[in-house]
Description:
Elements: H1 9-30, E1 44-45, E2 51-57, E3 62-74, E4 87-94, E5 98-109, E6 114-116, E7 129-135, E8 155-163, E9 166-167, E10 171-174, E11 179-183, E12 189-196, E13 208-221
Antiparallel strand pairs: 1-4, 2-3, 3-13, 4-12, 5-10, 5-11, 5-13, 6-13, 7-8, 7-12, 8-9
Amino acid sequence: MATTTVYGGSAQIAANDTDIGTNVTAISNLHGGVDTDAIDSVGTLATKTGLTVVEKGNAAVHKTIMTLTAVSVASTDGTTPGTDGAWATQLLYTFPEGHVTIHAAHMVCPLAGLECVTGSGTGFSDTADIGLGVGTVAAVQATEWGLSGTAENVITELDVDLTAKTSDAVESVAVSTPATYDGSAAATTLNLNYRCLGDDDHGVTADALLVTGTLTVIWSVLGND
């Protein structure tokens, strides 16, 4: 009569069950949330109502997908309204310290994905034209209309034209050229920035732009030297 030998008995079976459970969790993480190989090297999402993130990848290459759901970004009128555009900035993400290469980035703001809060003329006008982008440096007061330089070096400025307080088109843009940023002394950040394109787009009263959409960034950390 043939016999079957079970090696390790119940203890081995229990150990196998544990291994299976661990593998199921790891596989699940590959399809959403944080890949277990990436936990120690992903960046930090800013704490902001309406801002969430999914991290994918490993210690070499990451894919960070940020979802914005009516994220409020408060505006400030330019110091000299006739020459200085009303502007705003919101920290989104902080990379680990080190030299960070951003391989690609893509942002989508769907129909009606941008909406100003008041739209009364004391803040944004109902038909405000706004330059919105993502940069490694936060926007500041400046004598200019729209964004420039490091305020839009990750996602080049989107020309947002509001109609009755909301955006009138689907906006989608991708970064054009991979670039490496030295975050060895101070970690590199991603900042959502905007600046109005004309004096008649914003009055003297502070307002807010509600931003809905997704920002996807593929990146690597090359080291902290």
